[in-house]
Design goal:
Blueprint: E1 14-18, H1 22-33, E2 37-41, H2 47-56, E3 59-61, E4 75-78, H3 83-95, E5 100-102, E6 115-119, E7 122-126, H4 133-146, H5 151-160, H6 162-168, H7 172-183, H8 187-192, H9 196-208, E8 216-221, H10 232-240, E9 243-246, H11 252-255, E10 263-266, E11 269-270, E12 273-274, H12 278-290, E13 294-299, H13 309-318, E14 323-326, H14 331-338, E15 351-356, H15 368-371, E16 376-381, H16 387-396, E17 404-409, E18 417-422, H17 426-432, E19 439-443, H18 450-453
Parallel strand pairs: 1-2, 1-4, 2-3, 4-5, 8-13, 8-14, 9-10, 9-13, 15-16
Antiparallel strand pairs: 6-7, 11-12, 16-19, 17-18, 17-19
Helix pairs in contact: 1-2
Length: 458
C-alpha cells in the first residue's frame, strides 16, 4: 500500500484552491459537499466556479496565488494551468506540513483525490495512488452500479440503533456478531424495498433474540438468458439466497451467479415434460420459508408474464409468507431486441400483444378475428409446437399470407437462432432450420425491419 487511505473532516475548515477553471471547479465542488470553507485564488474563474461561490459562499481573490495565501489553510489543492505555480504551491504547502494535492502531478502531492461513490453517510473512495485516474473512474462506475441505492437509509437505521445495541450487548465481539447477523438477515432487503418500519421491527426482534429467524420468498425474473440482462436487485438476491428453485429456462450462465453454497432445486417444466407440478412448487416455497430460509424462486423472463408468478404470489400471501417481487426483462422484449425486431414502430405497429401458444388437447383457443388488425404486433410465447396452427388460423381469419413473421430460439444467448419469413412459409423455414424450444414467435410488419436493425447473432 503506497498511501494511507483516510477520510478528513473539513467541515468549516479553510481549504485553498489555486485555480479557477473547470478542473479547479470540480475539486471546489467536492470540498463544498464536505462542508469546507472555500478560498479560491486565480486570475480568472469560470462561470460555474462563480456560481458555486455565490451559492455556497467562500472567498475569491482574482489574482495569481501567493505564498501568503496558505496562511490558515488546512488543505490545499493546486489546479492551475501554470506548471511553475503548481510547483510553488506544492513547495509552500509541504514546508508548512499542509496536505496538498496537485492535479495530475502525483510527484507534487502529499495526498491523492480519490474517485468517490457518495451514498452518504456511506462513502466509498477509490485510488490508484495517482497512477491512473481513468482506471479509478472505471472502478467508481462499477461501484456506483453495484451498491444499492438505499444503502444510505440502511446506514441511517443501523446508526440509530448503535447506542441501544451497545447498552444491551456489552462485549465488542458480541456486538460484531450481532451486526453481522443483522446484515445477513432480511433487514437490508426490507430497507431497499422501502419497508423501513418493517426493517426496524425485524432489527428489534433480532436484538431481543425473540423467536427463530423468519424466512422470506423472492420471486425473481432472470430475464431471457443473457446474464448481463439481470437486474441489480436480482443479482444481489441471487447471492443472498439459501435455497433456489429455478426453472428450465434459467441458463447455466445465470445459475453460475448464485451463491456457491446455496441449495439448487430444478423445478422446471417443458413441453410434455413436467418434473414437478405447480402445487408441489408452492408447497416447497412455503415449507422452506417457514424453516427460516431465504428462498429464491428464479424464473426465466419475468415472473408475471406467462411465468405463473401470480399463482405463487397468491399462495404465499394466503400462507402469511413474506415475499418480494423482482421483475425481469421478459422474453418478448429481450429476444426481439437481440433479433433486431422493434415490437412497435411509428410506421409499422402502434400496439403489441403477448399471447401464449401453449396447446391444450391440441387446440389453441384464441379470439382469432380480434388478432387480425393492421399495425399490430403479435408475440406468441411457448408456441413452437403450435406454430402451424397459429399461422393457419391467422390466414384463415384474414391476415395476408405475406405478413412478415419470425421465430427466435434461445434468444439473447450465444445459441440464439432466428428463422424469418411470413405466416405462409414460416413453419417450414423453422423446421428446416432446426429451430428448437424455448422460442417465441413474432408476427407483424415490424419483422420486415430485421435486416436493417439486427446486430446480434449467436
Amino acid at each position: 500500500m503506497e498511501a494511507l487511505p483516510v477520510f478528513l473532516n473539513v467541515q468549516g475548515v479553510r481549504c485553498l484552491v489555486a485555480g479557477g477553471g473547470e478542473v479547479a471547479f470540480r475539486k471546489a465542488r467536492l470540498l463544498t459537499r464536505a462542508g469546507a470553507n472555500l478560498h479560491i485564488v486565480a486570475p480568472r474563474a469560470c462561470d460555474r466556479m462563480l456560481a458555486l461561490l455565490q451559492e455556497h459562499g467562500g472567498h475569491f481573490d482574482r489574482r495569481e496565488v501567493l505564498e501568503m495565501d496558505l496562511e490558515g489553510a488546512q488543505l490545499v489543492i493546486a489546479a492551475t494551468d501554470d506548471i511553475q505555480a503548481n510547483e510553488n504551491v506544492s513547495q509552500w504547502a509541504r514546508s508548512r506540513n499542509i496536505p496538498v494535492n496537485v492535479v495530475d502531478q502525483p510527484a507534487l502531492c502529499t495526498f491523492y483525490m480519490p474517485a468517490i461513490v457518495d451514498r452518504s453517510p456511506v462513502v466509498v473512495a477509490i485510488s490508484s495512488s495517482g497512477t491512473s485516474p481513468v482506471l479509478t473512474r472505471s472502478l467508481k462506475e462499477m461501484n456506483e452500479v453495484m451498491i444499492p441505492a438505499g444503502i444510505d437509509r440502511l446506514a441511517g437505521l443501523l446508526g440509530s440503533m448503535r447506542g441501544e445495541v451497545k447498552k444491551r450487548i456489552a462485549d465488542f465481539a458480541g456486538r460484531t456478531a450481532f451486526w453481522e447477523n443483522v446484515l445477513d438477515s432480511e433487514v437490508p432487503e426490507l430497507v431497499y424495498a422501502g419497508r423501513e418500519e418493517e426493517a426496524r421491527a425485524a432489527l428489534g426482534r433480532l436484538l431481543d433474540g425473540a423467536g427463530p429467524r423468519t424466512g422470506e420468498v423472492w420471486l425473481v425474473g432472470a430475464g431471457p438468458g443473457d446474464p448481463d440482462l439481470l437486474t441489480l436487485r436480482a443479482l444481489r438476491l441471487m447471492y443472498r439466497a439459501d435455497v433456489v428453485l429455478y426453472d428450465r429456462l434459467v441458463s447455466e450462465e445465470i445459475l453460475a451467479r448464485i451463491r456457491p453454497d446455496a441449495e439448487l432445486i430444478h423445478v422446471g417444466k417443458g413441453p410434455e415434460m413436467h418434473s414437478m407440478d405447480q402445487f408441489a412448487i408452492n408447497d416447497m416455497l412455503i415449507r422452506y420459508a417457514r424453516e427460516g430460509h431465504k428462498v429464491l424462486r428464479l424464473k426465466g423472463g419475468d415472473p408475471f408474464i406467462f411465468g405463473r408468478g401470480g399463482e405463487e404470489l397468491t399462495t404465499l400471501a394466503e400462507s402469511g409468507i413474506n415475499f418480494q417481487i423482482v421483475p425481469g426483462i421478459t422474453a418478448a422484449s429481450g429476444c426481439a431486441a437481440y433479433a433486431g425486431i422493434p415490437l412497435t414502430h411509428r410506421d409499422h405497429a402502434h400496439s403489441v400483444q403477448f399471447l401464449t401458444g401453449h396447446l391444450k388437447d391440441d387446440v389453441l383457443d384464441l379470439d382469432w378475428p380480434a388478432l387480425v388488425r393492421p399495425q399490430h404486433t403479435l408475440v406468441f410465447y411457448m408456441g413452437l409446437k403450435s406454430l402451424p396452427i397459429v399461422c393457419e388460423q391467422l390466414r384463415k381469419h384474414g391476415m395476408p399470407s405475406e405478413t412478415p413473421a419470425a421465430v427466435v430460439s434461445q434468444g439473447t444467448t450465444r445459441q440464439q437462432q432466428v428463422a424469418a419469413g411470413n405466416i405462409e412459409n414460416l413453419s417450414g423455414i423453422a423446421e428446416r432450420a432446426g429451430i428448437k424450444a424455448p422460442a417465441i414467435t413474432i408476427i407483424g410488419e415490424v419483422v420486415s425491419l430485421r435486416d436493417s436493425f439486427a446486430w446480434f447473432e449467436g
